[in-house]
Amino acid sequence: MLEDKNPQRTPLSELGEFRLIEHLTEQITLSHKSTIKGVGDDAAVLNFKSSRIVVTTDLLVEGIHFDLSYMPLKHLGYKAVMVNLSDCYAMNAMATQITVSIAVSNRFPVEALEELYGGINTACKLYNIDLVGGDTTSSTSGLIISVTAIGEVKEGNEVFRSGANPNDLLVVSGDIGGAYMGLQVLEREKEVFKVNPNSQPDLSMYSYIIERQLKPEARKDIVELLEKLEVIPTSMIDISDGLSSEIIHICKQSKVGVDLYENKIPLDPQVISTCEEFDIDSTTVALNGGEDYELLMTISQKDYPKIKGNPNLTVIGYMTEKETGMHLITRAEQRIPIIAKGWNSLSD
Amino acid sequence: MLEDKNPQRTPLSELGEFRLIEHLTEQITLSHKSTIKGVGDDAAVLNFKSSRIVVTTDLLVEGIHFDLSYMPLKHLGYKAVMVNLSDCYAMNAMATQITVSIAVSNRFPVEALEELYGGINTACKLYNIDLVGGDTTSSTSGLIISVTAIGEVKEGNEVFRSGANPNDLLVVSGDIGGAYMGLQVLEREKEVFKVNPNSQPDLSMYSYIIERQLKPEARKDIVELLEKLEVIPTSMIDISDGLSSEIIHICKQSKVGVDLYENKIPLDPQVISTCEEFDIDSTTVALNGGEDYELLMTISQKDYPKIKGNPNLTVIGYMTEKETGMHLITRAEQRIPIIAKGWNSLSD
């Protein structure tokens, strides 16, 4: 894929480290008043006089978090930013700045890094983020991307994982399970490609779920919506590891239990049909799939009228006393304990 | 070295990602009022109402930036923090928080990561830093450490690379070239060890330069000293890539030239004697060696009386008009153009 798109291949050594950073960052424009100084000094300088700031960081490793055989570099750059913005939004904060560090082996030409930065810059533009620093270095193998995001939130509006109370409603944005099923389709096509490199698969019937995997969007709009609706969730987390794992985080940190209703979990029709095709239970996918980057929150019952009927938010359960435990209420009205089966990057 | 020190080897998979992070961060204590929320949520929350904040990040890659055959993991953790604190101090800011992300292959047992975090925690304690977030994941090969540091500085006290004026004095803290010569000694001993694994080298005569390489200290004390002396440098940078490369950064960004005096460059006696032993020119080492993490600054001539005679600060030259160019004035009073030969991680 790289060769076709980039007939020109400039070796990294031709530019050198300093000029590479200059080259990759020369198109950066700054738009936040809080950014006093961006790329080009020992550190960026920021000014957040009237806000609290949030800081979050994520590391993406080739072969663990992404597979370049089906992940275009532009999308990878975009996704690396989204993963971090999502963490800021999960604090009910607006992301404002990022730093990006990259380690690459010499098998990547300069043009490949331009693609990667193209995705990063697109994400920054769409989400109004200033890229203010970073580090570019070589690696002995593969590509590693480390992004740190900084955001701001008005004092008192920050939302932790630990604030849920019994009787609060459990609410999720958008729909879930799509990113995981998109990955299943891409991995199947990769196997087909290995057997027959000339196959031209028609993936249009999977377009939504493949986009959920390759080009996820962080839910900035939900933070803006909550502000407009004048709802401050009692707790919030982003769904990176699957619904069950995130619910357990909220329950443990808030010292509450939960009743989650299987029939309320929002699934896209493409997720349902692809689960049928792959013979996988769609509830299992929603609970354990991960990478959807939707927001999971709890809200006070008094706020229910404000969110009722909003197509972006779905009530999927309610919080209980801790002693009641964490349960999925199935369509057959069985109570099944919720256990963490989230994607565990260290298990194999 | 690992086997001797750590007879117990717990596979990473035994703990899993969440419990590993919990395990490694359970000893963290927070000491800054600006840290509202540290590890354990989607993001850390910080409060910097009266200051500007600085942000910097660095990525350290096994086989590129460090060699575990002579770099103990505890020292590596310590150094990874120092590299970033040094960038904060180079802004004339006090570092206050860090995030640490680590990617490791399964060849590292939990005990190895404990060693690494031991060094990180020691650095945090000694430099009064709150560890507020991070990410731990697996890698397909080797160890990667990404650290982001956050610091604060009173508005108006921040120092950029771009503020130097003609006639300003060029000043360096401590002495330089030690870290590079320490590396030469360590690499020689590694080769000796390959031939004769039973050799027990006496490295005591190299103790200072080896410590400069394995356990560098960021110059927090210099930022404190400058405040006490009531000196705000006109420009500042930390010496990570060698004196010549950092001088060029200041000259280019400040649009000035420089006269650097070879006979003023501060060198430790161990650097001089080891350079003689290795038959390397000590000025070349000082100019191109790197990794000393001293601070290079320019100060106004009117501030000279305040720093005069201070054993921590050495005047090594002065800034000139841009047109004059950048020159080293040798002991033989020759004018040699300064060119960047700094360590370039992408050149091979």
Give me the secondary-structure topology.
2 copies of one chain form a homodimer.
Chain A: H1 2-5, H2 12-15, H3 17-25, E1 35-37, E2 44-47, E3 52-61, H4 73-89, E4 94-104, H5 110-127, E5 130-138, E6 144-153, E7 169-173, H6 178-195, H7 207-214, H8 220-229, E8 235-238, H9 243-254, E9 256-261, H10 269-278, H11 282-288, E10 295-299, H12 304-307, E11 313-321, E12 326-329, E13 335-337
Helix pairs in contact in A: 4-5, 6-7
Task: Count the domains of chain A.
Answer: 2
For this structure, what is the CATH homologous superfamily of the largest domain in chain A? PurM-like C-terminal domain
Q: Pick out the low-confidence regions of chain A.
A: 1-6, 342-348
**CATH topology of the largest domain in chain A, what is it called?**
Phosphoribosyl-aminoimidazole Synthetase, Chain A, domain 2
State the shape of chain A: globular
Annotated CATH architecture of the largest domain in chain A: Alpha-Beta Complex
Describe the fold and architecture.
Two copies of one chain form a homodimer. With 348 residues, chain A is α+β, with helices and mostly antiparallel strands. Chain A has two domains: 2-153, PurM-like, N-terminal domain (60s Ribosomal Protein L30, Chain: A, 2-Layer Sandwich), CATH 3.30.1330; 169-337, PurM-like C-terminal domain (Phosphoribosyl-aminoimidazole Synthetase, Chain A, domain 2). Chain A is 35% helix and 24% strand. Chain A has twelve helices and 13 strands. The first copy, chain A, has helices at 2-5, 12-15, 17-25, 73-89, 110-127, 178-195, 207-214, 220-229, 243-254, 269-278, 282-288, 304-307, and strands at 35-37, 44-47, 52-61, 94-104, 130-138, 144-153, 169-173, 235-238, 256-261, 295-299, 313-321, 326-329, 335-337. In chain A, the strands form three sheets. Chain A has a seven-stranded mixed β-sheet with strand order 8-10-7-11-9-12-13, sandwiched between helices. In chain A, strand 1 (35-37) and strand 2 form a beta hairpin. In chain A, helix 6 (178-195) packs across helix 7 (207-214). The longest helix of chain A has 18 residues, at 110-127. The first copy, chain A, is globular and about 65 Å long. The model of chain A is unreliable at 1-6 and 342-348 (pLDDT under 50). At the A-B interface, helix 2, helix 3, strand 2, strand 3 and helix 4 of A face helix 2, helix 3, strand 2, strand 3 and helix 4 of B. Strand 2 of chain A pairs antiparallel with strand 3 (52-61) of chain B. Chains A, B: It catalyses: thiamine phosphate + ATP = thiamine diphosphate + ADP. Chains A, B: Its EC number is 2.7.4.16. Chains A, B: Belongs to the thiamine-monophosphate kinase family. Chains A, B: Pathway: Cofactor biosynthesis; thiamine diphosphate biosynthesis; thiamine diphosphate from thiamine phosphate: step 1/1. Chains A, B: Mg(2+) 5 binds at residue 241.
